[in-house]
Specification:
Biased composition (Basic and acidic residues) (chain B): 169-185
Subcellular location (chain B): Cell membrane
Strand content of chain A: under 5%
Largest sheet of chain A: none
Structural class of chain A: mainly alpha
Membrane topology (chain B): Multi-pass membrane protein
CATH class of the largest domain in chain B: Mainly Alpha
Distance between the termini of chain A: 42 Å
Helix content of chain A: over 70%
Shape of chain B: globular
Structural class of chain B: mainly alpha
GO cellular component, one term (chain B): plasma membrane
Radius of gyration of chain A: 20 Å
Order of helices and strands of chain B: HHHHHHHH
Largest interface: A-B, 35 and 31 residues
Number of domains of chain B: 2
Order of helices and strands of chain A: HHHHHHHHHHHH
Number of helices of chain A: 12
Distance between the termini of chain B: 40 Å
Number of domains of chain A: 1
Number of strands of chain A: 0
Catalytic activity (chain B): a quinone + NADH + 5 H(+)(in) = a quinol + NAD(+) + 4 H(+)(out)
Helix content of chain B: over 70%
Shape of chain A: globular
Largest sheet of chain B: none
Oligomer: heterodimer
CATH superfamily of the largest domain in chain B: NADH-ubiquinone/plastoquinone oxidoreductase chain 6, subunit NuoJ
Chain lengths: 317, 191
């Protein structure tokens, strides 16, 4: 009983802390890549408290609901966007021997299914805002999810096939170093499709701030807007953690797997999160037709090829 | 009643209640959102019956894909906020009769088939392993036939949505008039 309470507390702490860490890293990494310093004043040392200050600012703002909006759906949407990522965090193993809050049998399917639910929050926000730009953004969110969900599930299935189990802990247990080249294509497809599902650059057409003014989030302000932003960063953490567990061997490192497993997991997660930020700084936004073409003409065939390769090798070995 | 039965009954009430709201609400998008609740309660029901894998696939396919597709379709055509007066159909009594008859048939089949018989729930009975073994050993032929059916519908959807496939010259004029409608079908490829 005590063990479960401690684990749940740890997951809640990770959920509150890791997205902020990624957000702060984004501020600083982006700034340095663009030849500036980023936040420097809040908290005195290199602006470490910038996001705390942002949070205080958001909490003080007035809670505005547009007159023509659908009040209930409008207010509910941020919660629908955020809660699924908290649930996914429950099943992600950080270390060996039960260092996971909830070891589900079909863990892979749980994670993918629940992540897909989060997207409904953005669609609800887009519709309920009574704003044509929001509606456009919501439609783009829906179109993007429908195209990228398929390659993501295929890529994850390929690992599950290789490991012979759907449990996330079981997959890491089975993982060997030569899976890196074996599942490389699937890994890239999974990560790219996940980025698209999170609407991160270069896949940020649904929230394109310079043309549809942040899409579904246009009418949001204060705490509800903060919840959407938090869900974006929680999504980054969840995607990087899932990629780590499925394709990069989770807690397995060159040495001290059992003692330092959680450290290897965290290191890999942050390395991937750095790549997410890097992509935002270095790639231009893709057009809607390019987005769809990438999904259907590249990612789906590539993930199918990965499935075939996994199947052939699995039978041959 | 055991705890499981209570939870199962409550989930059933939620599923049926939200399903009724889907067809009675006068707000179009709310109908799709109530469908999410209904599917979620159904998935919960599967979970209580230890069918873990089916439950999460239900969430992945129905909540994550089908409802998103529905919402996309509604938003693409018209998605009014507030009540729409024209959402009622004159067929609603016929539809209610068909629904009641279908329910009656299903309930009769289950009652006649099982009656008062009780089956013990065992953990892992609906796990991916058990399900896979049963689908690919006992039921492999129906499974393969279903996949051919799905392939046929997939090909059909592609043929319907491609405007550059023209079969006979005499139908060309008509099909070119309908060009804008054909373009819209592109969104349905995502299923």
């Amino acid at each position: 009983m005590l063990e479960i309470v401690v684990k749940l507390a740890l997951v809640a702490a990770a959920f509150a802390f890791l997205p902020l860490l990624v957000g702060q890293a984004e501020h600083k990494v982006m700034a340095h890549m663009q030849g500036r310093l980023g936040p420097m004043y809040a908290g005195a040392f290199h602006g470490w408290a910038q996001l705390v200050a942002d949070g205080v600012k958001f909490a003080q703002k007035e809670d505005v609901v547009p007159r023509d909006a659908d009040r209930w759906v409008f207010k509910l949407a941020p919660g629908v966007a955020l809660v699924p990522y908290l649930l996914v965090l429950l099943v992600i193993p950080v270390g060996p021997d039960g260092q996971v809050a909830l070891d589900l049998g079909p863990g892979v399917f749980f994670a993918l299914a629940v992540m897909g639910v989060g997207v409904i929050g953005a669609i609800m926000a887009g519709w309920a805002s009574a704003n044509k730009y929001s509606l456009l953004g919501g439609m783009r969110v829906a179109a993007q999810l429908m195209s990228y969900e398929l390659p993501m599930v295929f890529a994850a299935s390929s690992v599950a096939m290789a490991a012979g189990t759907l449990s996330l802990t079981g997959i890491v247990d089975e993982w060997r170093w030569w899976w890196l080249p074996w599942q490389a294509v699937g890994g890239v497809v999974f990560f790219v499709a996940g980025l698209a599902e999170l609407r991160r650059p270069p896949f940020d057409m649904p929230v394109a701030d310079s043309e549809i003014i942040f899409g579904p989030y246009t009418e949001y302000g204060g705490l509800r807007f903060a919840l959407f932003i938090l869900s974006e960063y929680a999504g980054i953490v969840v995607l990087c953690a899932l990629t780590t567990v499925l394709f990069l061997g989770g807690w397995k490192g060159p040495f001290l797997d059992t003692e330092l497993g959680w450290l290897w997991t965290l290191l890999k997660v942050f390395a991937l999160a750095f790549c997410v930020i890097w992509l935002r700084v270095s790639y231009p936004r893709m057009r809607e037709d390019q987005l769809q073409k990438l999904a259907w003409a590249w990612l789906v065939p590539l993930s199918l090829a990965q499935l075939a390769l996994t199947g052939v090798l699995k039978v041959a070995l | 009643m055991s705890g499981q039965e209570v939870v199962f009954a409550l989930l059933g009430v939620v599923a049926v209640g939200s399903a009724i709201l889907v067809v009675t609400t006068r707000r179009l998008v709310h109908a799709a959102l109530w469908l999410v609740v209904s599917f979620g309660a159904l998935a919960g029901g599967y979970l209580v019956l230890t069918a873990e894998f089916v439950a999460w696939v239900q969430v992945l396919i129905y909540v994550g894909a089908i409802v998103v597709l529905l919402l996309f379709g509604i938003m693409l055509t018209r998605a009014p906020i507030g009540e729409s007066a024209d959402l009622d159909s004159g067929n609603r009594w016929a539809a209610a009769a068909v629904a009641a008859a279908t329910a009656a048939v299903l309930v009769t089949v289950v009652v006649m088939g099982f009656g008062d018989e009780r089956m013990a729930l065992e953990a892992g009975g609906g796990s991916a392993e058990a399900l896979g073994a049963s689908v690919f050993r006992t039921w492999v032929l129906p499974f393969e036939i279903l996949s051919v059916l799905l392939l046929a519908s997939l090909v059909g959807a592609i043929v319907l949505s491609r405007s550059d496939i023209r079969a006979r010259p005499e139908t060309r004029v008509r099909s070119e008039e309908r060009e804008p409608e054909r373009g819209d079908a592109g969104g349905e490829d995502g299923v």
